[in-house]
Design goal:
single chain; about 240 residues; Rossmann fold; about 40% helix; about 15% strand
Length: about 240
């Protein structure tokens, strides 16, 4: 990736989002770090981005609110002039039996995992279309393409499958505008949320860096012909 690009990574105060923001700082001119409530952690991410040689600004927004998502994109564009790359990492999960999850919780997970990405995508696309270039990365999970039973993460699984359909829909509609839209689907990650009580061999766990490298490839110039795909970064977990 040319070191001229501007990147927005949502949910980048910690965890996977943080790892991606720091990795892309190796190649980008500027990185917008987004957070909702973890300001100090966002500052730490920003400090690490600066060490990699990219400009950085921190932004706060609740992406479950469409207006705030649009305002975030406008704020980043005012600060940096444009957004070339959007990485949507926001994606909380509720782990409990499906019939004990309230309607409000279902809606919350749906909005956070699917509608937040949709709102950010809709906001960045006009600028990307105008410039004839864009990279959008959404996040699934290692089994997102398996239409199976998920008794303890049902809302999350439903939302992520919906996001995959949205990803491929946008990929088709934006192909002539020079914009690619892809999904990256991690498996079990060190430092991430793991199934309660599960005895998981350490060798089965990936690293944030593994996922960040997949993102770095997909947003590169070399990946210009790759769109609508789902790259699973999960080793052989649940294969």
């Amino acid at each position: 990736m040319e070191r001229t690009k501007i990147v927005l990574v949502t949910g980048s105060s910690r965890g996977l989002g943080r790892g991606i923001a720091v990795r892309l700082a190796d190649d980008a001119a500027g990185v917008a770090v987004h957070y909702l409530s973890r300001h100090e952690e966002a500052r730490k991410t920003a400090a690490d981005v600066l060490k990699r040689g990219a400009q950085v600004v921190i932004f706060c927004a609740d992406l479950m609110e469409e207006r705030q998502a649009a305002a975030l994109v406008r704020a980043v564009e005012r600060e940096f002039g444009r957004i070339d790359i959007l990485v949507n990492t926001v994606g909380p999960m509720i782990m409990k039996p499906w019939d004990r999850i309230s309607g409000r919780e279902w809606i919350s997970i749906y909005k956070a995992n699917l509608l937040s990405a949709l709102s950010c995508m809709k906001a960045v696309l006009p600028g990307m279309r105008k410039r004839g270039f864009g990279r959008i990365i959404n996040f699934g999970y290692g089994r997102v393409e398996q239409l199976a039973a998920f008794p303890t993460i049902a809302p999350y699984a439903v939302a992520k499958t919906g996001l995959l359909i949205l990803t491929r829909t946008a990929a088709v509609s934006e192909r002539s505008a020079g914009i690619t839209v892809n999904m990256v689907s991690p498996g079990l990650i060190e430092g991430g949320r793991l199934p309660a009580g599960a005895n998981i061999p350490e060798a089965s766990l990936g690293r944030f860096e593994d996922v960040a490298e997949a993102v770095a490839f997909l947003v590169s110039e070399e990946a210009g012909r790759i769109t609508g795909t789902d790259i699973i970064v999960a080793g052989t977990w649940k294969m």
